[in-house]
Amino acid sequence: MQPAAFGATVVTDRPAEVAAFYQQHFDLQITIDLGWFICVRRGDASWELAITQRGHESVPAAVSAARESSNVFGFIVDDVDKTAAALAEAGIPLETEVVTEVWGQRHFFVRDPEGTWLDVIQLVAPDPAWLAENFPS
Fold it and tell me: What is the model's pTM?
């Protein structure tokens, strides 16, 4: 099987609030808004994020019953420091500091209003020693 596209879903009691978070802080646009079901995406990206009302008949009862998210969505941005500063200025608490990893990511973690973990990433050059150790020629 080869999926034609990818999407993830946040199940929440507050679909409009969660959608507004992604609109405001990640420049995603609403493509569908049924109140109980909202889709957001950036431009013509081949992925989308759905936001669905907890308890809706389309959501399995076990999913609606879960209150703590252990999902992590990764968002690649052009300038992670600028994104972190904008979120902090808007009163959104960062869950971690911005750090640079040897494998080529500068990133931090934050949570959306539902508690979904977001790994906000800027791709940077990997450490040459790390590359040599993990990808010998």
Answer: 0.89
